[in-house]
Amino acid sequence: MKFRNFFKIASLFVCMAFTIPYISTAANNEKPNTDSIADARMLSNIINRVGEIQQMDKSNLSASDKKELKKELKDMKQKADGLNSRVYLSVGAIIIIILLLILIL
User: Fold this and answer.
1) Beta-carbon neighbour count of residue 5 at 10 Å?
2) Distance CA 35, CA 103 (A)
3) pLDDT tens digits for 37-77?
4) Per-residue model confidence (pLDDT) at position 35
5) What predicted TM-score, i.e. pTM, was given to this entire model?
6) Which of 25, 41, 88, 92 has its CA 20 to 30 A from that of 8?
7) Is 27 left (phi over 0), alpha (psi -120 to 50) or beta?
8) Rounded to an integer, what distance in angstroms lies between the CA atom of residue 90 and that of residue 98?
9) In the chain, what are the domain boundaries?
């Protein structure tokens, strides 16, 4: 009975010995993508500008100034929506596309 428990515990330690160092090294070696850094900076600039516009006293502005602010906000919204417009393909989808291309051609 004790021999079985020893093997259970030993197998648990062996599994942990192989998985834990792999996870910790993968987390440390992750390099940020330069596109994501630039997108994050642009997004933070947009957020700061929207906060400034929200805190402004708009009662003193003329109609044309209000229109310009509204246009600026719409442009910033389009930029912010465009930052997250990437297409990701899984390995299965790529294989299916390649097979379809082979069958068609």
Assistant:
1) 9
2) 36
3) 888 888 899 999 999 989 988 888 899 999 999 999 999 98
4) 67
5) 0.48
6) 25
7) alpha
8) 13
9) 1-30, 35-104
